[in-house]
Amino acid sequence: MVQRTGTASNGRTRARADKPQRPHVSVPVIGTLTLPPPDRLVFYAVLGALGALEIIEWPIALVVGVGHYLTEQRLSPALQEAGQAAESA
Q: Does pTM top 0.85 for this prediction?
């Protein structure tokens, strides 16, 4: 997770506490993952259950889940900064 820092009056940087820390899960092959907020976690769980129960086909559940994840990431400040750096290059 990217933490924003602010500068204190004495010149040292400090971590901003405006966003709560989200829990992390360590997966052996993939590494450390940050869990999404509870409402999004429920969405992914229901989508996975629909695919597992074959109410919808699993490739469709996968595409919807990945698409939903990618649309959420467009709001990420770190990705916005990377996009601005790519545009200026």
A: no
